[in-house]
Amino acid sequence: MSDISRIFAREVLDSRGRPTVEVDVFVGDNVAGRAMVPSGASTGAAEALELRDGDRQRYDGDGILRAVANVNDKIAPALIGADPADQCSLDAKLLALDPSPQKSELGANAILGVSLAAAHAGATVRRVPLYRHLCGCLKAVAGNSLAPLEPRMPLPMTNMISGGLHAGRNLDFQDVLVMPVAAPDMRTGLEWIVRVYKRLGKLLEAAGYEGRLVGDEGGYGPRLKSNEQAIEFVVRAIEAAQLRPGQDVTIALDVAASHFYDGASYRLASEGNSRLSSHEMIDRLERLVTKYPIASVEDGLAEEDWNGWQDLTRRLGHGVQIVGDDLFTTNPERLRRGIELRAANSVLVKVNQIGTLCETLATIILAREAGFSYVVSARSGETEDTTIADLAVGTAAKHIKIGSVVRSERLAKYNRLLRIESELLTCGRT
Ligand code: PGA
Ligand code: ZN
Questions:
Q1: Protein residue with least CA distance to atom 8, ligand 1
Q2: β-strand 250-254 against 175-179: which pairing, if any?
Q3: Do 400 and 374 form a contact (C-beta atoms < 8 A)?
Q4: CA–CA separation, 421 vs 378, rounded Å?
Q5: Which residues is 20 bridged to in the sheet?
Q6: Distance 42 CA to ligand 2 centre (A)
Q7: 313: Cβ–Cβ under 8 A, 6 or more apart, which residues?
């Protein structure tokens, strides 16, 4: 008997102390799969809806008991008896239960919790690691359209300095990150990243800035004078770690520009609230990319500035990864538009932006077919759930973006990657 016998959801807490959905999927008498749902702060307008109770007596309205009830009362009865290994049929049932465009009836948090927990249960009944199961799911969604694909370790894109909505708007840009491009494997890459992170803390302190307080994702959150100064500090930290900026370790930015776009111009608080047009914002990014070893720029422009994105990609896209996060919200329709318009050349993949695993896989397939890279990403509100580590490996993502190398909700995922790497090495495949 390997059918789903029971599904049970509960309210648990995420890394910001906010309630989130946890789902258990049972096969027989045992929990065969469990997952917890992440939550963003700098969310894209086109994201699937996170259902919250709004009852101010509990968690200031942030409770998710309605989403929990939707799982237990509405979703569970429809999935009992289903095969947890058949992810696409399960997800199709979930979509049929809530056909609204942003999953606002049951809540994307309810739906995603079930979708992810079912994937864990599917791996359990198939007796394979989750990343192998997800690799199989990707192939099942793609049919024959996919070039041969095997699980592969991603390159981490790791937060060093946090700004924007993740650190009290200390800086306009949301993240300055590093990528250990020359590291031969994950363990080495992580050692390099931790070394850079520690050197950065010391450099910040020596310069009189706060080198201990961290933002939501574990990056340092100093009140620096400018976005550029943050990049400069990270370059110096790479050097202080005896690594070569641009060769051993490159830099990535998540500008998260939607959050300082007022509908007409980009307003940089760190530059006396100066207003930049789309064109000027691209000039600014071009200058930074030319001056520093920046290999990837995420959300360099706002989520509805499609013309600007086309321009940005034309000007920088040949040498730099141009990643759409708020722009695409992991949504196949939005990504299709981006591919047609040649806006961006890479997509950020966050499971809760779209709400089911199979739709996430559809986005990944579209990206692969178009030659876009994809970056599997955590949210700023996270839990000890490690599903995205397996998702990145199982779909052979180019990068994984988890946050920094402190805070256990981040380390749970890095440590899962280390476990997967040692497993793959033992099997003779990386
Ligand atoms: P979020 O931030 O989870 O708050 O949206 C992550 C990101 O923008 O990449
Ligand atoms: Zn982002």
A1: 42
A2: antiparallel
A3: no
A4: 19
A5: 12
A6: 7
A7: 322, 342, 343, 344, 345
Provide the greatest CA pair distance for the chain: 65
Identity of residue 325: D
Q: Is 42 in the pocket of ligand 1 (CB under 6 A)?
A: yes
Helix 408-426, helix 387-394: angle, nearest 10: 40
Rounded alpha-carbon distances, angstroms, from residue 111 to 29, 69, 74, 185: 23, 12, 11, 35
Residue nearest to atom 1 of ligand 1 (CA): 40
Ligand nearest to C-alpha 351: 1
CA distance 51 to 104: 7
**Integer Cα distance of 405 and 313 in angstroms:** 30
Phi and psi angles of residue 42, each rounded to the nearest 5 degrees, phi first: -95, 70
Those residues with Cβ within 8 angstroms of residue 170's Cβ, 6 or more apart along the chain or in another chain? 163, 221, 222, 223, 224
Rg, Å, the chain Cα set: 21
Q: How many A from CA of 157 to the centre of ligand 2?
A: 12
Ion ligand 2 neighbours (CB, 5 A) are 254, 325
pLDDT in tens, the chain (430 residues): 799 999 999 999 999 999 999 999 999 999 999 999 999 999 999 999 999 999 999 999 999 999 999 999 999 999 999 999 999 999 999 999 999 999 999 999 999 999 999 999 999 999 999 999 999 999 999 987 777 899 999 999 999 999 998 888 889 999 999 999 999 999 999 999 999 999 999 999 999 999 999 999 999 999 999 999 999 999 999 999 999 999 999 999 999 999 999 999 999 998 888 999 999 999 999 999 999 999 999 999 999 999 999 999 999 999 999 999 999 999 999 999 999 999 999 999 999 999 999 999 999 999 999 999 999 999 999 999 999 999 999 999 999 999 999 999 999 999 999 999 999 998 865 4
The residues that bridge with 156 in the sheet, in sequence order, are 400
Would you say the C-alpha torsion 173, 175, 178, 181 has a positive or negative sign?
Answer: negative
To test the pocket of ligand 1, the residue of 327, 377, 399 to mutate (highest count of ligand atoms within 8 Å of its CB) is 377
Q: Which of ligand 1's atoms lies nearest the C-alpha of 39?
A: 3
